[in-house]
Specification:
The complex is a heterodimer of chains A (about 120) and B (about 110).
Chain A lengths: L2 E5 L2 E3 L5 E8 L8 E6 L5 E7 L6 E3 L7 E6 L4 E6 L8 E7 L14 E5 L2
Parallel strand pairs in A: 2-10
Antiparallel strand pairs in A: 1-3, 3-8, 4-5, 4-9, 5-6, 7-8, 9-10
Chain B lengths: L3 E3 L3 E4 L4 E8 L7 E6 L6 E5 L3 E2 L7 E6 L2 E7 L8 E6 L6 E2 L3 E5 L1
Parallel strand pairs in B: 2-11
Antiparallel strand pairs in B: 1-3, 3-8, 4-5, 4-9, 5-6, 7-8, 9-10, 9-11
The chains are: A mainly beta (about 120), B mainly beta (about 110).
């Protein structure tokens, strides 16, 4: 069973940091680009960041560039998001998910982890 | 940045009706456009990838088409379990982006 499980969310004050983790199982994690997507309360999906299958390429939304860092460890099927200088507008459910490939692909989403930034 | 604009924020459709949701991209994404369904309290689920490729296990009433800047998701014969919000998502150009979402309701 393909699965992604996020953890690390919580309630923090503005300016603080959090590190989200996402553990993959049941599929070849190392073969996929993976990304973080967030959803603010009552709002739509918003793309946050992506890391290539080998970790060599990283891309960010303008809203998080310079504050968030995406990384991965293929040896333990882990995806991470280091979030610094958090702002109230970062309050969201954060999902990890893989980018589907053109052929022979699975597509998995985690259950999400909630980040609340509030004073 | 590529902006994806879905044809409506909300649609109310009779049971067994046909639903058409359009996603227009501000620049070409060739065929790198995917459709997701999200039910309340759940994670999104892939319906169609790369504009028109179906996903195993997804009912055949969901069909995608299009290329370049204009894409369509059609649901033929709406079922009660199709009540959800539908999003398009482009992976053609960074930064990736999502449409604003279209929420379906049954009349």
């Amino acid at each position: 069973q393909e699965q992604l499980v996020e953890s690390g969310g919580g309630v923090v004050h503005p300016g603080m940091s959090l590190r989200l983790s996402c553990e993959a199982s049941g599929f070849s994690f190392r073969n996929y680009a993976v990304q973080w997507v967030r959803q603010a309360p009552g709002k739509g999906l918003a793309w946050v960041a992506l890391i290539s299958y080998d970790g060599n390429d990283k891309y960010y939304a303008d809203s998080v560039k310079g504050r968030f860092t995406i990384s991965r460890d293929n040896s333990n099927n882990g995806l991470y998001l280091q979030m610094n200088s958090l702002r109230p507008e970062d309050t969201s459910v954060y999902y990890c998910t893989n980018v589907p490939r053109l052929r022979n692909s699975v597509q998995v989403w985690g259950q999400g982890t909630t980040v609340t930034v509030s004073s | 940045e590529i902006v994806l604009t879905q044809s409506s924020d909300f649609q109310s459709v009779p049971p067994k009706g046909t639903v058409t949701i359009t996603c227009r991209a501000s620049q070409s994404v060739t065929y790198n456009l995917h459709w997701f369904q999200q039910k309340p309290g759940q994670s999104p689920k892939l319906l169609v990838k790369y504009a028109s490729q179906p996903t195993p296990g997804v009912p055949s009433r969901f069909r995608g088409s299009g290329s370049g800047t204009l894409f369509t998701l059609i649901i033929n014969g709406l079922e009660p379990e199709d009540v959800a919000t539908y999003y398009c998502h482009q992976t053609g150009t960074f930064p990736y982006s999502f449409g604003q979402g279209t929420t379906l309701d049954i009349k």
